[in-house]
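Morning!

As promised:
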Amino acid sequence: MDAGAAHLQLETVQELYRKVALIRRFEDRVYRLFLEGEIPGTLHQYQGQEAVAAGVCSTLRIDDWITSTHRPHGHALAKGVNTSEAMAELYGKATGCCGGKGGSMHLGDPAVGMLPAIAIVAGGNTIVTGLGLAMKLRKSDQVAACFFGEGATNEGAFHEGLNFSAVEQLPIVWVCENNLYGASTPYGRVSLVPDVAERAKVYGIPSQIVDGMDAVAVREASAAAVEHARNGGGPTLLECKTYRFTGHSRSDARGYRTREEEQEWAKRDPLIVLAARLDEATVARLEAEVKAELDEAVEFARNSPDPDPATALEHVYA
Amino acid sequence: MDAGAAHLQLETVQELYRKVALIRRFEDRVYRLFLEGEIPGTLHQYQGQEAVAAGVCSTLRIDDWITSTHRPHGHALAKGVNTSEAMAELYGKATGCCGGKGGSMHLGDPAVGMLPAIAIVAGGNTIVTGLGLAMKLRKSDQVAACFFGEGATNEGAFHEGLNFSAVEQLPIVWVCENNLYGASTPYGRVSLVPDVAERAKVYGIPSQIVDGMDAVAVREASAAAVEHARNGGGPTLLECKTYRFTGHSRSDARGYRTREEEQEWAKRDPLIVLAARLDEATVARLEAEVKAELDEAVEFARNSPDPDPATALEHVYA
Amino acid sequence: MPEAAVATRRLTIAEALREGIAEEMRRDPEVFLIGEDIGVEGGFGGAFGVYLGLPEEFGHERIIDTPISEKVIAGAAAGAAMLGMKPIADMQYSDFLFECMDELVNQAAKMRYMSGGKVSVPMVMRAPVGMTLRGAQHGQCPESYFIHVPGLKVVAPSDAYHAKGILKAAVRDPNPVLIFEHKLLYGSKGREAAGGMDLTAEVPEEDYTFPIGQAVIKRAGSDVTVVATHVSLYRALAAAETLTADGIECEVIDPLTLQPFDTETIFGSVRRTGRLVIVHEDTLTGGWGAEVAACVADECLDYLEAPIKRIATLDVPAPAAPVLEQRILPQEQTIVETIRRLVG
Amino acid sequence: MPEAAVATRRLTIAEALREGIAEEMRRDPEVFLIGEDIGVEGGFGGAFGVYLGLPEEFGHERIIDTPISEKVIAGAAAGAAMLGMKPIADMQYSDFLFECMDELVNQAAKMRYMSGGKVSVPMVMRAPVGMTLRGAQHGQCPESYFIHVPGLKVVAPSDAYHAKGILKAAVRDPNPVLIFEHKLLYGSKGREAAGGMDLTAEVPEEDYTFPIGQAVIKRAGSDVTVVATHVSLYRALAAAETLTADGIECEVIDPLTLQPFDTETIFGSVRRTGRLVIVHEDTLTGGWGAEVAACVADECLDYLEAPIKRIATLDVPAPAAPVLEQRILPQEQTIVETIRRLVG
Ligand SMILES: Cc1ncc(C[n+]2csc(CCOP(=O)(O)OP(=O)(O)O)c2C)c(N)n1
Ligand SMILES: Cc1ncc(C[n+]2csc(CCOP(=O)(O)OP(=O)(O)O)c2C)c(N)n1
Ligand SMILES: [Mg+2]
Ligand SMILES: [Mg+2]
């Protein structure tokens, strides 16, 4: 690798670290604020899986699109939803990215190429085919990425979406975040074939298993898949093996998995994996930047007004 | 093969011929009666595919169950629905197997192990898992067979049903009748992978491609799958390559396929394939039996009363 | 005004829809078609032939034949609409809408709201309804499920002029619109089954739209207001003719749009006539007639001189046998007798 | 008579349902449970903990944890029921029912009819409803869609006694029954959010069922009939208390079953009070309140002294922000004011 490439590479790792840290610290902060009663509703958090969102979204342009799930905070921050507006949305404030109407499970912002997240498991898997179809019909070189969990692969929507994307050769990157569990259910209990990547083959879709704890590995796999889609090569499925460090939702005692398993995965924390490629000073600087961004976001959210109740009646129809 | 086995084999072929002929002559007769205005509604006919229903059902007991599709006449006759009652049902008569309430697309009779056919494409593919589950929970040695077209394999229900049957190791035989078209649509346009059998593999379900024009071949494959299921071995998928000799429904001019293709398949007519294994006298005798059965069925249907209009209000609730 | 346009051609609904689709595709390159068996060469042009001839003009890129995957049809239409395209999706029979309820109810209908108004979903879904001796899974009229979904618009045109006009309005509408059409009203084939009425209507050559949300008074009258759609509308009109012999003048209204409902036209009529009869082929309980009755019972109670009557398909699945189907469908004779009792 | 039974225990709805399920599983080996995350070791016992402890008694054979496949949950339940088993299926949130509408509407509901009465479908589907700050796809009350499906029964219990009794009746019913329960009423957690009311009820130790199709007059009164379910029922009861200060006596009715609806109890009450207010958390247009209003406007018109009023969630998807959610929900204050205007 020549000096230029090495520099580029270093910048990329820094950028990835910054995103992963932003998501991690955001989620940890949000959890505290939720426990303290500042954030209403419920939470499905993303700690542990940050490398997937950060790696994939680092290969997308702002005019590329993503769909997301009930666990969307990481996808939103990675795709570039404004951190303060994301936080305000969790607070249910008027300044939130969805004006307080979406909430945690529907974070998103079309301005940066993210549909409000879809909280129906695999719900995004049919919608994304429409994004891909629009791109194809318009002969644009945009790409759509669809995030979904391994649990979603047992929904009919997974099947219909993949098959249609193959038949129409849509510019879609299917990103499965296989974190081993769907709510309390281990994937091994609901699928005899452990690798989701296998499932892509019967649609004629190329697939790849990726280390979902390593943002650089995710980025590399995603870059190739995005490039392939952008050039008219059709869909790819990436199965990112990952782990959520938290419960399924905020009230989950995680009795269905062992602390040992959790500790094993904790060793592969995406922050550790990336930090190993950076020096301490850089990490400290990036963390400080992230902290400042989050302080600002919480301030912004706190100081934002509630939505005017009258707006509850707006935006049903145009 | 010793003499006893040969005799058995011969009886089997005769029985298969009889069933295939019964279905073929039934369908041809029904078509004429429909054109003459005696039979109301619409028709999806089974000519050409008879070997599949006859072969599979010849391996099932009366207390085994099948689910069927919008194209159910052949399945019904093969499973043992009374020919006269099936005919009367097409006529919309009170003596029909569903009292006139089901009609062509919902033929069936639980007394012989056939649910009223389900005319929603792949609709049977989730329902059948419940049949299999009941058998498993009751520790009975019954088996359920689910008939569906290749077009149904692109529905979400196909996917959910197969996966669940694998995970629960249900006693189900999945019988795909791949007749190359779903209505006007060639399978090659809606699936990049031409063999449905391939699709079973990602669920961990064994599968096999079968000559769907040869009732003996279907019978052999089905016998093994049924045996496997009966012994607790779980589901199997049989992909029977076949062809419908008629249009999709009664008003189809078949402009989407060539006359040459039709002629090629006509050479492999399941009646011809079976007749080659029998002597002419036997064939003539079987055909005569079938004709008598059908004459009686038509007489029965014609002479049966219409349902009492008041019964329209019955059977919504128990 | 569309009514003033010179209109000498008579078209069937199928012809009018085809023309409307073609005009919108010419006008706006973002309009495209998606569904099962709609454009296959040598195929049917959709289950009721509405798309015949369109692939020749527009090619297969804008006429997308899908796998049998209703979730994808609705989901892809919704997704493409979210990026601003104008899909016209096709459901072969409206009974199959139950296979893509999530995409319609949870996604297409709610996306604008969930996004705080940032995302539009300008999609159209066409779905044929009505009993035609095909049994329980090919004869439903599921309009009423969808009037209950905030975010969706629901229309149900009954003649060629309004079918074309409202389809074109739907394509240009920034919201998801479901168009329910009755199988027996498409064209000449249905004529006989629908009672021999003329199913063509004058359709102008000029570009026009008919507004979503506007009812049409098909026949003025002073004694009773009758609200009906599709085949039931023609039955109501025939009943109205019959009743003139009794000296009863019916005001027959085609609501055309079921959501948002043109309550003003209905209220105005009921305030004049003092009586309301609603007729629909959808089953009775929880049908859209209940909503109309409830609104009138709230807003026009003091004007009512008689109970509000609903005539609908009886609360049973569609049977296959002709005598049974006839027994459960709302019949002209029932309309006549009900109105006689109301007014008498 | 259940009312006469010695009943000293107070249970939450979750506890009562759990007990009812266990009793039915003990009584009949053909009863089994099926759904997502219902029996996983170390798991949640279902999204609202109703199944906690059941695997210990009944094992995993009769408590089937499915993949995330709602079509299979509904389809397998329906299929097993067609062979005579008695499945109790679980939908984590009723919003997900839109993923299995075909299985419920086209298959389970119609199979008896299509078969000419030969096939029964004795399945139960439980589905939690209600807004709890989770946004558009986790807060719906979709009861009304299902009252429109001939062949389905729909119940919506609001307290532990009736929840257990009607669940047990549903398990023994030969028809498919959907049980809608409100998330805020399950137990202590919901108490605060539901306005601090006591959410336990006396539940006898003895085996009892409560009949499907029978409404309960929760509070007798002479001035106005109020029909409400779930949280809205408690709001209506609170409003009734408030209104006694105005000298207004409300008769508050819990219909309990939405299909088949106990119209006789409602008609009887309206004929006495002359006024009807319906309250539900489902959205207004096309909600089950419309059907009740329509029936009353047909059968009781001459008794009505005031317009029929419906108070419901406003016609919008569920928003996430607390102030917005509160804005659209039917509030006690609105009930009070509406009734004051009606009676005043
Ligand atoms: C259609 C549907 N079914 C069930 C649920 C409830 N639910 C929410 S998340 C979840 C588990 C999802 O698992 P997976 O897809 O692996 O995503 P993960 O939570 O692991 O990120 C379930 C069952 C839902 N939201 N939508
Ligand atoms: C859910 C659903 N979608 C569409 C249809 C309309 N339809 C009836 S048969 C058919 C083609 C089915 O093809 P296939 O499964 O291959 O069966 P075949 O007709 O070839 O026997 C279609 C699209 C339907 N009945 N149900
Ligand atoms: Mg997971
Ligand atoms: Mg086929």
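Chain B is about 45% helix and 10% strand.

Hope this helps with the figure draft.
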